[in-house]
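From the pipeline queue, job 12 of 40. The input is one protein chain; the requested action is below.

Action: predict structure.
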Amino acid sequence: MQDVIVVIGPGSIGQAIARRVSVGKKILLADLRLENAQAAAETLANAGFEVDVTSVDISSRESVQSLVQKATAMGQISGVIHAAGVSPSQASPQTILKVDLYGTALVLEEFGNVIAKGGSCVVISSQSGHRLGPLSIEQNKALATTPTEDLLALPFLAADAIKDSLHAYQLSKRGNSLRVVAEAVHWAKRGARVNTISPGIIITPLANDELIGPRGAEYRRMIELSPAGRAGTPDEVGSVAALLMGADGTFITGSDFLMDGGVTASYWYGELAPEQ
């Protein structure tokens, strides 16, 4: 039975990872907009990969279950690349929590039930989760272990507790990394691994839009005052994901890899630190 790599959100980062881990395997690309998956499929097919496409709404359990069924019909799922989500400038706080937090928990739960022995998953989170202040031990455990269908009912995620879309995004991304820690225990029962990558500003079409948009000055300042002094590339994220999903990463699970050129370091201890 041939191995299948499922890519949820096949944008620049999803494609870069797929190129590194999918040689000799089938790829299933899934996106909310089928035309996005089809465009990515054409690029990957022209590069020699065997690709199929489908649509998915990660905020819908029924839709995610349909994706799982389609993937398992193609072969054994040896890898999941979860790179779908919405940004603070794209959606309301409630939508961000539903897609980025609940949706990720849903993907981890459903694919954790079918992942093949030796399989692995990488969830693309964000540096934003590292710039949220400390949560309580109880809040951390709640984000990590609350049953998926009860997640959005947590009191500290209520509408009156969320300041704005950025706050919702930061909570979602912190929740993603915490969820992966807990899910690593469940995935291990199937002999599989799961990790998170938290990228900083990575040059993609969306990032380019942000750089010339209303928050562009803030983004450019983050890049300029970071230790690296530049933005990252999808291929750099792909390299880290290839390590995590490949033979050299078999001792790594339940971990979060921050790769942001030092933006978070500068935020907490350098020139990007907010004024008190």
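Job complete. The chain has a mean pLDDT of 96.
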